[in-house]
Specification:
Length: 506
């Protein structure tokens, strides 16, 4: 099991009585229900699994603790360094990594800085060894033998790539948003996020009218396709006065038309807990900003990587690390309960990533692991001598948080679920003599005959997907009325569960 941090104890916490009168609807949907699924969108993270990063599916729990789990960094990091003349000392990854269309290897869209920003392209067979191909697209010092995608007269960076194979125009199968500063000649009068499209992710054509999103003053924004609602999501940086400081915050914009984004609205600002550390700082004006949010659809909900910027000098210097947030609609985000452990921690002092961390617009899922490529700096935000490289980290499937039971048995009961059928699958880990059982209840809390915890074959060991059985029965009972699930754990962690085929909770 991954290195973990404890959130809070749910012992005795109950919403069961209230949940009985307001059943959660679980509708079975085919995985190909959206155009994105049907067309095989690269990097799609949605599916049938229900996570426990929040209490949405917890009506009642006893003797359980929610535990957050951090990504485990690859021991051989970094996997990509700035080693080309046009890259300077810094290669950034607030961009995108996608699997190849043939399912073998990866592609990265990233940027570098050597006094000017450049948007670059690299490939890898295993995610560890990367190649920077000679694209023959853009001149650098009299040669096109480089991996520069395109270099506009306007300074630009932050390439966010979206795979949209359902677009009827084959020239638009890949789409990109990136930020234009507009501060190099010829100076643009309008800064913002520009759009481009491509048939292959390499040869790009700018949208006829740019920028496609013009309202954000911040130079960092993260954009994704949302398969759950079939829309584009954007989380641009915004500035807002919060408790006496003009702070970097998170905005939101969504659209069904790539070339036209509505002005963003403010959705997430630092709270008082974010500033609590500043009381111990000797710097006047120490406070917390949000440098960016990478929000993406994951399984049946939304997860986000929030970039926490602790300004230690009262102005523009300090470390940046990554915290997990969650949402049920992509707009309203839930913070972790205190102490809000990082999901990606800064490296040890003196390491290549001890100053700042940044993530791509979404991670990747492969087998029983979640893969995350990330950018790291060996200096804090205000230090101009910073070197930057790209690293790699992994997490078990659905392993962001688990409901944990120690030596004392614990239980978790869901709200009533409608239209549930098929097998019950669980993602869990049991240590030593630990186990997990499940039982099925009616909406009033009565256990259904034949589906008690004593009827359930105990699940042991560590499995990301295991079918629950009751005396040989490997499917839930066919019932016209809503049912509840109760999980019984001891010395075990429950990460997620799935019922039947793909589901959508409404």
């Amino acid at each position: 099991m991954q290195t973990s941090q404890t959130e809070h104890r749910n012992s005795g916490h109950s919403r069961f009585q209230r949940a009985r009168s307001a059943a959660i609807t679980v509708m079975t949907l085919a995985l190909i229900s959206t155009a994105a699924h049907a067309a095989g969108q690269l990097g799609d993270l949605t599916g049938p699994w229900q996570l426990f990063v929040d209490d949405y599916l917890v009506a009642e729990s006893t003797s359980l603790t929610r535990v957050y789990h951090a990504f485990e960094k690859y021991a051989g990091n970094p996997v990509m360094r700035a080693d080309k003349p046009w890259e300077g000392k810094a290669v950034y990854l607030y961009g995108t990594v996608l699997p190849n269309e043939n399912g073998e290897g990866y592609r990265a869209w990233y940027h570098s800085y050597d006094g000017s920003y450049r948007m670059l392209y690299a490939t890898s067979g295993d995610g560890i060894q990367w190649t920077k191909p000679a694209l023959s697209l853009t001149d650098f010092n009299g040669s096109t033998e480089n991996n520069i995608l395109f270099q506009l007269t306007h300074e630009n960076h932050n390439p966010q790539v979206l795979h949209t194979p359902w677009d009827p125009d084959p020239q638009r199968r890949y789409k990109m948003l990136y930020f234009e500063y507009g501060r190099t000649p010829p100076v643009s009068t309008v800064t913002g996020y520009r759009g481009a499209w491509s048939p292959d992710g390499i040869h790009w054509t700018e949208c006829p009218v740019n920028p496609v999103l013009v309202d954000s003053p911040g130079d960092v924004g993260n954009f994704v396709w949302d398969p759950l609602e079939e829309r584009y999501l954007g989380y641009p940086k915004k500035f807002e006065e919060v408790r006496g400081f003009r702070r970097r915050c998170v905005g939101f914009s969504a659209t069904g038309i790539f070339e036209s984004w509505p002005g963003s609205t403010l959705i997430l600002t630092p709270d008082e807990y974010d500033d609590r550390w500043a009381a111990d700082s000797e710097a006047q004006g120490a406070h917390t900003d949000f440098y960016g949010l990478c929000g993406f659809a994951y399984e049946t909900m939304y997860l986000g990587f929030l970039w926490i910027f602790r300004i230690t000098d009262g102005q523009n210097d300090g470390p940046i690390f990554v915290e997990l947030v969650s949402s049920r609609d992509g707009v309203h985000w839930r913070r972790q309960d205190e102490p809000r452990p990082p999901i990606l921690s800064l490296g040890a002092e003196g390491s290549w990533d001890d100053g700042m961390l940044f993530t791509p617009n979404h991670p990747l899922a492969e087998g029983d692991r979640i893969k995350l490529f990330y950018g790291g700096f060996d200096a804090t935000h205000g230090q101009e001598s910073a070197n930057a490289a790209i690293g790699f980290a992994t997490l078990r499937k659905d392993g962001f948080a688990s409901m944990h039971a120690g030596g004392e048995p614990g239980t978790l009961t869901t709200p009533p679920l409608e239209k549930v059928s098929g097998p019950l699958r669980v993602n869990y880990a049991a240590a030593g003599d630990g186990f997990l059982r499940a039982e099925v209840l009616d909406a009033s809390g009565g256990v259904l005959p034949g589906y008690t915890a004593s009827d359930c074959a105990p699940l042991t060991g560590d499995h990301v997907e295991q079918v629950v059985t009751w005396r040989g029965k490997n499917a839930l009972p066919v019932a016209p009325e809503p049912i509840c699930l109760r999980f019984v754990l001891q010395n075990a962690d429950l990460y997620s569960f799935a019922v039947g085929d793909a589901v959508n909770i409404q």
